[in-house]
Amino acid sequence: MTIFSYSFMQNAIFVSIFISILCPCIGIFLVLRRYSMIGDTLSHASLAGVAIGLMSNQNPILGAFVFTSICGALIEFLRSYFQKYTDLILTIVLSLSVGTAITIISSGKLHANADSFLFGSILTVTRFDMIMVLVLSAISVLTLIFLYNQMIYIAYDEEAAKVAGVKVGLINYIFSILVASAISISIKIVGVLVLSSMIALPVATALQLGKGFKLTLIFSIVFSIIDIMLGLFISYYLDVAPGGFTALISVAVLVLVLLTKKLRTTRC
């Protein structure tokens, strides 16, 4: 019996494919806007959503999506009050979300264990989770396609986009929900603690190739697929959490690309 014969591994591969496509699509806009730490903040916010979902006997992925969307919208709202202090906004939202998560988890009122969401687990992906992933991914990708030109404009020059008539505020709120979607569908496989690595590291690796925007996005997805699939399969045989090992693979691939780039530069 091969590894592909197990239903839990089939579920994990299904979810991983969508994660590896959606995360770089979201991550490239965060990285270009120098907002990669927002991904880290919202990934921690998702734990509070998971805790709320488990406490209320609701699907934890749905809970993560709703709470993370609220936190993403809160970040955009606070930007008008702390325009020059983005790091302070992230600290406020991080304090709110982590405080909520710890309070709920330590209360003993959870109807399930939240540990698998911290580190990621291929055993906990259910059929309903797969449906949630499919729906959220489809909506997110279609929204990205529809808003593609405006989001590129905003990523490179937000002020110029406002002058050109782009509805920057509205699109930023929509983008916050897209980030929440990417995080909530990734949480079961990757885990909260290293989720932001899947949003930023494949993009960081692709940027080293020095290509245009579209090719950078394509290579980001390629690197993301390599990172997640290697992390998933090797972690299964090593019997370790897939999230942490996937993060190590992501760093290793980035270092390999950097070394290759350095060697080529030296030879030239």
UniProtKB/TrEMBL annotation:
<dbReference type="Pfam" id="PF00950">
    <property type="entry name" value="ABC-3"/>
</dbReference>
<dbReference type="GO" id="GO:0055085">
    <property type="term" value="P:transmembrane transport"/>
</dbReference>
<feature type="transmembrane region" description="Helical">
    <location>
        <begin position="173"/>
        <end position="203"/>
    </location>
</feature>
<feature type="transmembrane region" description="Helical">
    <location>
        <begin position="215"/>
        <end position="234"/>
    </location>
</feature>
<feature type="transmembrane region" description="Helical">
    <location>
        <begin position="61"/>
        <end position="82"/>
    </location>
</feature>
<keyword id="KW-1133">Transmembrane helix</keyword>
<dbReference type="GO" id="GO:0010043">
    <property type="term" value="P:response to zinc ion"/>
</dbReference>
<feature type="transmembrane region" description="Helical">
    <location>
        <begin position="131"/>
        <end position="153"/>
    </location>
</feature>
<comment type="similarity">
    <text>Belongs to the ABC-3 integral membrane protein family.</text>
</comment>
<feature type="transmembrane region" description="Helical">
    <location>
        <begin position="240"/>
        <end position="259"/>
    </location>
</feature>
<keyword id="KW-0813">Transport</keyword>
<dbReference type="InterPro" id="IPR037294">
    <property type="entry name" value="ABC_BtuC-like"/>
</dbReference>
<dbReference type="InterPro" id="IPR001626">
    <property type="entry name" value="ABC_TroCD"/>
</dbReference>
<feature type="transmembrane region" description="Helical">
    <location>
        <begin position="88"/>
        <end position="110"/>
    </location>
</feature>
<keyword id="KW-0812">Transmembrane</keyword>
<protein>
    <submittedName>
        <fullName>High-affinity zinc uptake system membrane protein ZnuB</fullName>
    </submittedName>
</protein>
<feature type="transmembrane region" description="Helical">
    <location>
        <begin position="12"/>
        <end position="32"/>
    </location>
</feature>
<keyword id="KW-0472">Membrane</keyword>
<dbReference type="GO" id="GO:0043190">
    <property type="term" value="C:ATP-binding cassette (ABC) transporter complex"/>
</dbReference>
